[in-house]
Amino acid sequence: MFTKKTVLSFAASALLTLSFSSVLSAAAPSTLTVEGITQQAKQDAGTGTHITLLHTNDVHAHATEATPYMGYAKLSGIANLYREANPNTLLLDDGDQIHGTSFATLVKGESVIQTMNLMGYTAMEPGNHEFDYGYDRLLELSKMANFPIISSNIVEKDGTAPFEPYIIREVDGVKIGIFGLETPETAYKTNPKNVTDVEFTDPAVAAKKMVAELQGKVDVIVALGHLGMDQSSTDTSLKVVKEVPGIDVFIDGHSHTLLENGQTENGTLIASTGEYGEHMGVVDLWVDGGKVTKKQAYVLDEKAAANVTPDPKVAALVDSIQESQKSILEETVAESSVKLDGERTKVRAGETNLGDLLTDAMRKTAGTDVAITNGGGIRASIAAGKVTKGDIITVLPFGNLIVSINVTGAELLAALNNGASDFPNEKGAFTQVSGMTYKIDTAKEKGKRVHSVTVGGKPLDLKATYSLATNDFMAVGGDEYTMFKGKAQTGIYGSLDEALIEYMQSLGKVNIQTDGRIAEAATPASSTGEATTPATPVKPVPAKPSTTKPATPAKPVPAKPSTTKPATPAKPTPAKPVPAASDVYVVKAGDTLYSIAVDHGTTWKVLRDLNDLTNAHWIYPGQKIKLPAATATVAS
Fold this sequence. Notes:
The chain is of the alpha/beta class. It contains 17 helices and 30 strands. The longest helix has 18 residues, at 312-329. The radius of gyration is 25 Å and the shape is globular.
């Protein structure tokens, strides 16, 4: 069954399509016990030796159990059950483990490596966030690990390979070759300064080399590929498996995609567990005579694992690490009378009050005309009430500094266009701003979508020079902000977390709401980025709903409104209620939600809300889209 949260990333080029015949249906055990696992395996059995691959990806140091996250002890408890049911079990990780919450960041990832050692991981492919503490620190952590960190397409500038490209493990007479692939996006999806000594080669080329190397040596070939399925990415798991036959299983990550029963492309079973330890992935293989006779995938969530006993040794280790960090993290540093929204699906696709608050803090700290930060750098929400240092660090775990540079109006416009290139789809580079407003026209081509920009309430002057506060990641070209790269820094300030704490303290009790800094509207005639009177009413861009809960909630307390406001914000227009549906449209190949909306005289937002879609591009041929009663027409 595909749930609302499931990402239907059955993509071909730039269009999502769906092929039910490619999805192998597999059921999780009805009861997650040794007996239940064994019974299910017998029911599903192919011929030959049974191998189980357990896998995780994009856990981002969510160490403790807190709905919907299962935490390391529960994940380890699941692994222990499967090992007891089938000794031919390996535990693999596909990257982005060692960064993301204070559990990891306070000790630069060492706590996660200690925990993974105790959990008994077989191998790990580093993700882009494994480089967040710097390349040298990753090498240090790799020496602390009791398991190999592998990658076949990470090379140093002199051609040296810092990690083993693959490993071979023999399990009950079956030889399994496992190789790693890292996303080339790491060059700008960590601070570019962290990877100046390494390069990331073409994953498809590396995969071809690995398959050629392993064929004849092993019975099963497994790729640990931190590539993902995002349509905005050039190098994806889908691209690799379509170009490289011979991979039996591809464990995917990076895009936080949830494939409940895997996806088969070109003979390769792709498996991915979503994010933050919400699921444990299970791939079952049967191998006979050196060939895979059957393979299937499924995932386990907290509901399936409700009766699983957390691993007591792992739980004790996590508790001891947290206890050592407790005094630092529990310090109350501010208060908020409202929830500060940093949900992934929102900060990467629209304005949020936390994005506003953070950029206001950056602009005040640096004393600049404007401030910009990337939505992908905001990693969690903060609940109303007392705000602790731990809350702030969880929101801003990267330790980035605020820097100021001077930019032209044209460069500022280019930066906004970079952030808006995938709108309304999520993008880590999406710009949260202060001291300015802008509008997005999704009908325009990428690079020309942003218009009607104001700075300090005045139209943007493309030839003028503006002072800009941003983070040190973006300032050196991270997230493809190449227009900032090479700019002389006019100031270097404290870290984002320190600036946010200081600014919140200056407000007394925070009570910030979004104020329409970012809006969606058609481009007025002759607009070149400078502000003009819009031809159509402006619709504010609230970010998409999310079911993800904040990683570190705080206790609510009453608060008084803040008196500090950003410069001349635009007033948002209240959103119109979603009309009732009276007809449906059946999605065809080539359709997008935007094109369907245009054809039927409505907007993609109305269709998204009417159909309860969590992402505007998660549609597929054959899907029925409800149409508003006022605009329903016969599908052509």
